């Protein structure tokens, strides 16, 4: 068994359950389809059998299905790095089966809850080498906790106090409390340590455990510049939040801050592993171009692409704009 396949099978696969939120193969928003596909490829390598139930989603014979799995297995092992996200797995399957019937390709992807080919987007904008005009400051975040993604355009991040933008402004009482907390933990006085940590948190900081090392970090709330996603209570609000979550969870972000909004949030552009987050959100149909506050025409272009494909919120003929939704509820 290939190392990549073995890793995914051993680390990612979850047993199927009877949870109604799961798809036909035990796939949920949490497990995605990558784990299930890796599990079935592992089984196929041993038994040469395709999963039961797949025939309800595709039109070709089991012999043809076995041929697909054989090809996908080879490609999966050769991929460096191997697919780890739903989109990466979908791209690999789509490429390997590009000569097959559309119904079979889409049926196989649907079986695993993977994105269909027409919903996949290419993100082209990388982080700028030099700071663009208007940027006040930039910073690199610590890995983003999934719980910190409030909705499709707002996220809470933490920045290590060793970062230049933060290091010179850490209050003395926070530094002292962090040192005292560490000493309290050394002596197993956890009640005192928790009291000191609460004091640190109340000051807008937190001590985070990053790779078994405690890091003092400052909290920032970020409003994604130039886009407006559906509010949590709106139709497609949950999908927008989950879409942003899939991009940033457990990743370190590069943030270019242009200003602060009326709620005290930093308004900025986000980059994640070379991906411009706003571009991804717009192209996936998970947000509007917020033209009232950002005139960049490229944002309008990316929104238009999603509209034309009728993906995401644009599958609806006339989705309500979040700024109209908020206005109507203030009346």
TrEMBL record:
An annotated Gene Ontology molecular function: endonuclease activity
Gene Ontology CC annotation, any one: cytoplasm
Keyword set, alphabetical order: Endonuclease, Hydrolase, Nuclease
Residue ranges of domain TNase-like in the record: 149-316
Transmembrane portions of the chain: none
Keyword Endoplasmic reticulum: no
Pfam families in the record: SNase (PF00565)
Protein name: TNase-like domain-containing protein
Species of origin: Arabis nemorensis
């Amino acid at each position: 068994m290939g190392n990549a396949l073995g890793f995914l099978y051993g680390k990612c696969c979850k047993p199927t359950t009877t949870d109604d939120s799961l798809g036909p193969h035990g796939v949920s928003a949490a497990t995605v389809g990558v784990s299930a596909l890796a599990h079935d490829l592992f089984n196929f390598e041993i038994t040469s059998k395709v999963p039961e139930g797949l025939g309800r989603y595709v039109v070709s014979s089991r012999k043809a299905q076995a041929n697909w799995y054989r090809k996908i297995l080879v490609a999966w092992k050769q991929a460096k790095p191997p697919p780890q996200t739903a989109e990466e797995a979908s791209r690999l399957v789509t490429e390997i089966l590009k000569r097959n019937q559309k119904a079979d390709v889409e049926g196989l992807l649907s079986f695993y809850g993977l994105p269909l080919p027409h919903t996949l987007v290419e993100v082209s904008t990388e982080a700028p080498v030099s700071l663009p005009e208007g940027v006040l400051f930039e910073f690199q975040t610590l890995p983003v906790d999934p719980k910190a993604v409030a909705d499709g355009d707002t996220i809470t991040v933490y920045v290590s106090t060793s970062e230049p933008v933060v290091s010179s402004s850490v209050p003395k009482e926070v530094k002292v409390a962090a040192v005292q907390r560490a000493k309290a933990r050394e002596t197993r006085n956890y009640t005192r340590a928790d009291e000191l940590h609460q004091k640190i948190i109340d000051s807008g900081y937190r001590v985070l455990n990053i790779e078994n090392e405690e890091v003092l970090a400052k909290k920032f709330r970020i409003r994604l510049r130039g886009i407006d996603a559906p509010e949590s209570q709106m139709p497609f609000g949950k999908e927008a939040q989950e879409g942003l979550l899939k991009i940033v969870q457990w990743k370190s972000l590069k943030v270019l801050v242009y200003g602060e909004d009326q709620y005290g949030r930093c308004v900025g552009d986000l980059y994640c592993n070379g991906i411009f987050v706003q571009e991804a959100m717009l192209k996936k149909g998970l947000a509007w171009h917020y033209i009232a506050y950002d005139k960049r025409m490229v944002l309008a272009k990316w929104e238009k692409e999603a509209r034309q494909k009728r993906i995401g919120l644009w599958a609806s003929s006339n989705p309500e704009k979040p700024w109209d939704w908020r206005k109507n509820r203030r009346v």
